Structure of Lipopolysaccharide assembly protein A domain-containing protein:
Amino acid sequence: MRGVKRVILVLIVLLAALAILAFVLENQQNVALAFLGWSTPQMPVSVFVTLALIAGMLIGPFLGLLRKRNGRRKQQIKSFDSL
């Protein structure tokens, strides 16, 4: 059973790698982004999308921790109010 799970995991990782490779190869057009007066040099679209993905993967868990922490704080405040 453990071997089957390992094979399925390897297949999923290989499919994800192939999808990423296909995305990068299909999005080689150079673009420059401009936002609030700040502009980037021309780079392939895939670079910007990959950077956005990485930023989201770093920021998302942090925001989840903040939300969980605020939820606990609200529960503590409610418990003090009931006293």
